Amino acid sequence: PAFGLFIFTIARDPLRIIILIAGAFFWLVSLLLSSLIWFIAVKASDPQDERLQKGLLIFGVMFSVLLQEAFRFLYYKLLRKAIEGLVALSEDGCSPISIQQMAYVAGVGFGLMSGAFSMINLLADALGPGTVGIHGDSQLYFLTSAFMTMVLIFLHTFWGILFFHGCEHRRWWEIAAVIIMHLTVSGSSFCNPLYVGSLVPSYLLMAAAAAWAYLLSGGSAQNLRRFLLCKC
User: Are 49 and 65 in contact (CB under 8 A)?
Assistant: First the structure.
């Protein structure tokens, strides 16, 4: 369902495709830089010290989250400049795409690239060696990983809307809320293999972020109720 966001809402608009690809590129660069720093830290430390290696893993995850949000801010600045250029080039003095639409497409770009890398890692684990759950561990690894990938794609989409809205209106607490939610979801992965400890909080945060993004995008509680009740 998450990858359907691209097919149904972006694929027919060339400008949106460009914005999505650029957003995916920004996320990819943030991952590259955070991975490089973590790799250097691991190589410079004692590989036999398990406590230190776990600490470096936690540091790598938290640093990656902060770097992703920093690149999201840089991407907002770039798109803001792009809107000014589009307005200057247009005949009617209006931008062909609003900042709210850019926020959505940029969020989908971040989410799809994040989901693509999660699926690649999942498929790499599926190749072996070994069989999941053969030593009594949970056999739900692949299923829960798929659900976690989906929730991250949706969360990045909603976070993009919230983050851009916070930047646009200088509501820094909205940006801080996005960072805190991102840190919480990423940190909850350390609860695995107790998958309930990571999936349940992530889906609750996704529901809250979805409702928040819906309201900031101009939606109303009345329209949402009519949609859920299938009333025109």
Answer: no
Helical axes 99-126 vs 50-89, angle rounded to 10°: 150
Encoded amino acid at 135, one letter: H
Q: How many CB atoms lie within 10 A of CB 153?
A: 25
pLDDT in tens, 131-142: 665 566 667 777
Encode pLDDT of 208-228 as tens digits.
999 899 888 877 777 777 766
Nearest by Cα to 225 from 216, 214, 159, 217: 214
Nearest residue to 161 (alpha-carbon basis) of 118, 102, 205: 102
Ordered by start, the domain boundaries in the chain are: 1-129+138-218
Helices (H), the chain: 4-9, 14-43, 50-89, 99-126, 141-168, 172-188, 196-216, 221-228
